[in-house]
Amino acid sequence: MRAALGALSGLVTGASALAVAELAAVAVRPEAGPVNAVGGAFIDRTPPWLKDFAVRNFGTNDKLVLQLGILALLAVFAMAVGVVALRHRPAGFAAVLVFGAVGAVAAVERPGGGPLDALPSVVGAVSACGVLHLLVGRLTFRPSPAAEGADGTADGTEGTNGTDGPPDGSFDRRGFVIAATAAVAASAGIGALGSRLNGSGAAEAAASRAALVLPAPASPARPVPAGAELGVRGLGPFTTPTKEFYRVDTALVVPRIDAGGWRLKIHGKGVTRPLTLSFDDLLRRELIEREITLTCVSNEVGGPYVGNARWIGVRLADLLREAGVEPPSKGGPADQLVARSVDGMTIGSPVETVMDGRDALLALGMNGEPLPFDHGFPVRMVVPGLYGYVSACKWLQDLELTTFADYDAYWVKRSWSRRAPIKTESRIDTPRPFASPKAGVVPVAGVAWAQHRGIARVEVRVDGGDWHTARLAAQHTRDTWRQWVWEWRASTGSHTLEVRATDLDGYTQTEKRVGTVPDGATGWHSVVVAVT
To answer: Is the preceding omega at residue 328 within 30 degrees of 0, hence cis?
Structure first.
């Protein structure tokens, strides 16, 4: 019984530490809270295979799973601390302070961190020691009357450090319940206040986004051809709805930035006229609108991390030229453009690529609306033809011209390639794996992509037989994916369907399966179905 209450003491102590730390983070920034700091540090040190495992198995819920995992481990640790403190209170205090130190170090070492970022973890740990002392003190044995001497002094064996007392002793159950209840109530109130205050900046950011009306683009996107949508059941729309667009990033807390206070700096090697731009500065420039398909390098063969949207923004190359930048092919000294996010993410793109005439954008809008916070509001990069980890920086705040020899961006430091053009790929969307279509004509359909090259042909085969040319939907631009369908005369039994695509440069997908590290997966997507 007493050990269980000790574990409960630890849980209450842990909850109070997090609540106080949340409130203390108001004085610094939300990212300095211990859960966010430790979670961010874990993400930064995650090896590529584990990152791929998380994305593959948890998808866009990977960060929620991480946060829940951290809280679960913290709960176990806190219960253990409570039990230890029953037998040796100083050891319990030491464990709490060690945990606070871990959170403080993690917060200070995060991108954009500084000495003040240690404050929430330190304050939370110190307050937790007080709560632990209060609760464990109520669980200290008091000798029973029979164990007292004639002079009324205790004749038991209990030490002053809270060690176990005699078996016939008792502890202050009523006092413990009152103290624990008060601690829980105070923690809930403090945590709610901290959450509300930390969210006040988010409310201002939401208001700035809600008030934003994007001007009509000077160069609107071409209308999507009627034939770009094949209308096959089970095949998604040509333009991916914003709510269904994939999200893969490292942000445990989605940055919420007030567009009115946002600034972008362009500087570095070869920049003869450094620029500092506000959001209104971008709105006053010529805006263009383009359909562009994005792909994550973590997308396995046949995976879901690819989507097509209509983006509106400013040509990145125009801004770079205004800053005096020249690509390497014209003598420019910088071959890498490092984009920095407000959350500390760094993404390096080839200068030659973003200035070669493609529609590389600083995007302000997505599918006719301002960017959602999850997708980078107020401004993000979109570069057709490059995987997102070398092109699609969200929550952008800084562009630095440098070289690949001088600087390795975030993912390059973690074993991914410096340059990563999107590979030619195709996917079967229908029938789904292990589906049971009826014998007869079965439409086999999906999408294929080779951004900035375009798709020339898609072929399907059954059970390793001859390849059959699929019917392609109308091509919108070479920067978008392309739907396809093949009418299969299916016979009963189990069958394996495979697909491959050929791009407009003449390259046909390789059969060789490789993983996503270091520069994207390859191989033919296949599904097994049981025709009835």
So the answer is: no
Q: Given this model, what pLDDT does residue 149 score?
A: 47
23 by Cβ neighbours in 10 Å (0-12 / 13-18 / 19+) ranks as: buried
Whether 189 shows a pLDDT value over 60: the answer reads yes
462: three-class secondary structure by DSSP: strand
Contacts of 89 (CB under 8 A, 6+ apart): 132, 133, 136, 161, 162
Q: pLDDT digits over 419-471, tens only? A: 999 999 999 999 999 999 999 999 999 999 999 999 999 999 999 999 999 99
CA nearest to 107, candidates 44, 40, 22, 43: 40
Give 74-126 as a DSSP string.
HHHHHHHHHHHHHH-HHHHHHHHHHHHHHHHHHHHHSTT--GGGGHHHHHHHH
pLDDT of residue 167: 45
Q: Which two tokens stand for residue 382?
A: 């979109």
d(CA 513, CA 523): 4
> What is the per-residue burial (b if ≥16 Cβ within 10 Å, else e) of 131-143?
bbebbbbbbbbeb
For residue 379, what pLDDT is reported?
Answer: 98
- What is the dihedral sign for C-alpha 47, 53, 56, 58? negative
Length of the chain counted residue by residue: 532
- Between 36 and 186, the more confident residue is 186
Residues 6+ apart with CB under 8 A from 27: 116, 119
The answer to whether 390 and 192 have CB atoms below 8 angstroms apart is: no
Q: What is the C-alpha to C-alpha distance for residues 376 and 249, in angstroms, rounded to an integer?
A: 10
What's the confidence (pLDDT) of residue 67?
A: 81
Q: What is the dihedral of CA 359, 362, 366, 369, to 10 degrees?
A: -130
Query: Phi and psi (nearest 5°) for 276?
Result: -125, 115
- Rounded CA separation 108/306 (Å): 35
pTM over 0.70: yes
**Angle formed by the axes of helices 119-138 and 173-198, nearest 10°:** 160
